[in-house]
Amino acid sequence: MKAMLFGFVAIAVIAVGADFTLDQMGWSAQEQGASPSNVRLD
Amino acid sequence: MRDVRKIILGCIMAVLAFMFLMSWMTPGSVNAQEATTVAPEAEIDRSATGGATTLEDIMRRQQGLPVDNDYRAENVGNPESAAGLSEQLGTLGGASDPDLWRGMRFNAADVTTQVRGPAAEVLIQDRGMWWLQFREGPLLTYGGYLLLGTLGFLALFYLIRGRVRIDGEKTGRRIERFKNFERFGHWLLAGSFILLGITGLVSLMGRKFLIPAFGHEAYAWLATGSKWIHNNVSWAFMLALVMIFVMWVIHNFPDKTDLKWLAKGGGLFGGGHPPAKKFNAGQKLIFWSTIVLGVSISVSGLSLLFPFELPLFAKTFAILNTTGLPEMLGFGVLPETMTPHEEMQYAQLWHAIVSFVLMAIILAHIYIGSIGMEGAFDAMGNGMVEEQWAKEHHSLWVEEVKQREGKAPSGATPAE
Ligand code: HEM
Predict the structure, then answer these.
(1) Which residues between 165 and 184 in chain B have a beta carbon less than 8 angstroms from any beta carbon of chain A?
(2) Residue ranges in chain A modelled with pLDDT below 50
């Protein structure tokens, strides 16, 4: 059953990694949808 | 004889259950009534508005009925066709705000905006209503009943057929069916698919079922979490899809044994165990469904994940139109130009429809891989299956394995 556990852990790791990487690459909704001159409170 | 009677009884019950569900699902009567309250397009009298949009036009659009836009499309700011200044609708010398809005509506206005993003300049699109109604209506209803129907069918199957047992005497010997890496790939796929299925259903059905049950506040949290999981777990699913394709495609090409297997109904209802290689015909169907539908879900999902960046449907429809197929099937000519938002709407519907189909198929797979068949789960659990199970369900594969083992020096792992 170790393979199953590894699989499930990998899902979590990939998900967090994808979220972080896409955000770093500028794919956040904020960066995609707002121009730099927009007033936006972070 | 008793078996035959059981099967017939099962079929009759399944058909009755299906008919019962269908009778519930048809919302026809309500719609028909609504439709009759709206006059057909030809009879709409626009004299009260000086030829402009009437309440009836608005109602027709909201109900997704065909609307003739010609009377408005030509009316986008030409002073010649505007009402005179002294008249009730004659504002701003013919260049009134309504004209500006109409210009936007028909993409004739020159829009500049600070907002970035590919679709930022489309300020109005009027094809959203039918999508919303379809998503909240038939998609949700029929999709939901498809899943419930599948669960019902499986429960019925379990009651009638019971668990598929290992017929012969167990040997106590075990043979390796899937390696660690293969099982890892399977569970990467299975875990992500189940998470995606649940969070997808939360997103689609939350408004109808969860908000009434738990309130907006609680659902807001659930929806935000679901969205995060759905968007980010998708990558694990896509990776796993590639993995299982590469690992197992070699065992999944159809061949002669499949025809015999199918002709015997897989031996599910007696008649002995038809021979099978590593995967039987039923499993091959599961494999190819997962690959083909999984890829389609992935592609439409990517289109949704990167809004407006990967439009798929206008081009696909254009290709389909050249084949003449849509017209032959009564769909008419499919739209070949659409607003970016309409592209997203089609992507959403396609993504959901294909997902419902794959979810129903996978429910059956999960059933037969766990409670439905004695000894099956071990293959994906620890990778080792009872030899008698293997002989009954995958006789040709066992012969192959034995042959390979015979050739290899004892103790050595046979090379794949
Ligand atoms: C709790 C859920 C699941 C269980 C218990 C399960 C169990 C199994 C088992 C035991 C096998 C090996 C069958 C054999 O030895 O021949 C298998 C194979 C497979 N599974 Fe699953 N599975 C689950 C979920 C999924 C999901 C969600 C997917 C896809 C989205 C999936 C796709 C496959 C495929 C493509 C195969 C190979 C073809 C086949 O055997 O049908 N499984 N699964």
Answers:
(1) 180-181, 183-184
(2) none
**Displacement of CA A9 from its chain's centroid (Å):** 17
Quote the crossing angle between the two packed helices B211-248 and A2-24, to the nearest 10°. Answer: 110
By the 8 A CB rule, do B71 and B38 touch? no
Note whether B114 contacts A37, CB cutoff 8 Å. yes
Instruction: For B221-241, write each residue's pLDDT tens digit.
Output: 999 999 999 999 999 999 999
Interface test with B, best of A11, A21, A28, A32 (most B CBs within 10 A): A11
Give yes or no for B331 touching A (CB within 8 A). Answer: no
Provide, rounded to the nearest whole percent, the portion of chain B with pLDDT above 90.
63
**Which residue shows structure tokens 């059905």?**
B205
Cβ-based contacts of A8 with chain B (< 8 Å): 187, 191
Look at residue B256 and tell me whether its pLDDT is greater than 70. Answer: yes
Assign domain B131-404 to a CATH class: mainly alpha
Contact B145, B21 (CB under 8 A): yes
Mutation to test the B interface, candidates A4, A6, A20, A22, most B Cβ within 10 Å: A4
For residues B84 and B96, what is the distance between their CA atoms, to the nearest angstrom? 11
- Concatenated DSSP letters of B354-386: HHHHHHHHHHHHHHHHTTTBTTTHHHHHTSEEE
Nearest-angstrom CA–CA distance, B275 and B81: 79
Ligand 1 proximity of B290 Cβ (cutoff 6 Å) = yes
Distance CA(B287)–CA(B277), nearest Å, equals 14
Nearest CA to ligand 1 atom 25: B190
Asked if residue B243 lies in contact with residue B189, where contact means CB atoms within 8 angstroms, the answer is yes
Nearest to A6 by CA among B184, B313, B287: B184
pLDDT tens-place string over residues B338-363: 889 999 999 999 999 999 999 999 99
* CB-CB contact of B42 with B75 (8 Å): no
pTM of structure: 0.80
pLDDT in tens, B138-168: 999 999 999 999 999 999 999 999 999 999 9
Q: Is B334 in the pocket of ligand 1 (CB under 6 A)?
A: no
ipTM of the complex: 0.91
User: Residue B247: its chain A contacts at CB < 8 A?
Assistant: none
B314-318, B391-395, B409-413: which range is least confident on average? B409-413
